[in-house]
Amino acid sequence: MRKRSTIFLVTAAITSLSACITYNTPDYQSSADTLLHLQQLNVAPVAVAAISRPSGVKDDLQCQTQGRVKAPGGYANYVDAALRTELAKAKLLDNNAAIQLTGSLQKMTFNSWNNSWQMALELSSSNGQKLKTETTYRGEALSLEEETSCHLVAQSMSVAVQQLLQQALTSDDFTTLLQPIP
Asked: Would the CA dihedral through 17, 71, 117, 154 be positive or negative?
């Protein structure tokens, strides 16, 4: 009986310690392709309001039994900073611009077993136009070991956000968000 309770306590301790593990996402790296595309647009700079998230979208997610995948300031803040980075590098960001973009991170989930992210972002312009982008990113590396799979999915978030923003910012509809109010 004593041996069983000792095994139970050790198992409970290991489980509770592993649940405290945090897998942090890497810093965002802008896309050269997106930058090149944005630099070729003939549009005025825009202002960007903070990206929000509906209450159903979490700021970090549980990764099996191994802990949580977190981004600095939460997922919406990460996407917000990434969007600002892309626009700033293309010299299309101006806090005093006539046109202002707002955004809502509509979906942010992952499957660590598949090293995949599912994301949806809606951008709205003060000119009345909207653009919704959805993407599924699948990383190349996979693992069936829980800790490794959690680490891999956390590391792939930056590239997944890069793919989401590339789809949005290089879309033909993106320029309609930047047009002056008629």
From this structure: negative
At position 39, the amino acid (one-letter code) is: Q
The pTM for the full model equals 0.86
- From the list 64, 58, 75, the residue with the least C-alpha distance to 24 is 75
Q: Residues 75, 81, 86, 90: what is their CA dihedral angle, to the nearest 10 degrees?
A: 170
Residue 15 pLDDT greater than 60, yes or no: no
Distance CA 155, CA 69 (A): 9
* 98: helix, strand or coil: coil
Other C-beta atoms closer than 10 Å to the C-beta of 22 total 12
Pairing of strands 100-111, 130-138: unpaired
Q: How far apart are CA 182 and CA 176, in angstroms?
A: 12
